[in-house]
Design goal:
single chain; 284 residues; mainly alpha; MetI-like fold; flat
Amino acid sequence: MTGRELQFQRSRFLWLKTILYGGLGLYALLTLIPFLWALSASFKPLSEIVAGGANFFPQRFTLNNYRQIFLQEPLFLRWFFNSVVIAVSVTLFNLLFNSMTGYALARLRFRGRRFWFFLILAVLAIPVQVTLIPTFLILKAFGWLNSYQGMIAPSMVNATFIFMMRQFFINFPKELEEAAELDGLNKFEIFWHIVLPLAKPALAAQAIFVFMSSWNNFLMPVVVLFDPEMFTLPLGLNTFKGQYISYWNYIMAASIVFTLPALGIYAFFNRYFIENVRLTGSKG
């Protein structure tokens, strides 16, 4: 290949790269616009929002929307607390149980292992909506309706992330486990002290998805919770919408507050999440 042809190839690659990044940047901007509008609307009075218009900057800037939800709405902080308790508990239980199950399916030899693995794969094909009525009846029989345990217990494990953790542990180097076994560690000690600390990328990816799924969950609270004091934020925000008027200024302010914990979780685990994507790509 001559120098002229090589320069042409480089120029062509540069143009393709520019078009690709330009398209991705435009797509990112389009997805960011609704969030920016919601952020702007959270500082607007209701009259300015319902008047229409696509102005991103409030004509009458106000903090009354945030004062209203924090100081005048007596249950908002309780809804926030309920969401934090449920989402954090569900995330921690999933990290523990999904990892233990995935490790057992990947490393331990026991009778019926293939049966349980294929059963977990079968569960992935069942829509969540199909299990709502059986879940409601079981929780009612236990007396767990309108309670934290009623929201946490059905979500403590997730078949998707059991499968993900199994795939991660299958590719985990056996030499580390064999060396730990020679040092006298049993299977649980190997899992807890050797395997789990080195599984941070997979755990971080799991934590992000599980937390966001639990934090944004609206369907389960509708079925399980009926006391306003036990509402989570997605269910509580729905009370700002009435039959004749919807307080969009309060909804936008509460939505921004509602978004912050999810952004914080992603920012905290972002480094491990990207590492998991890199490792997965290199193994594929």
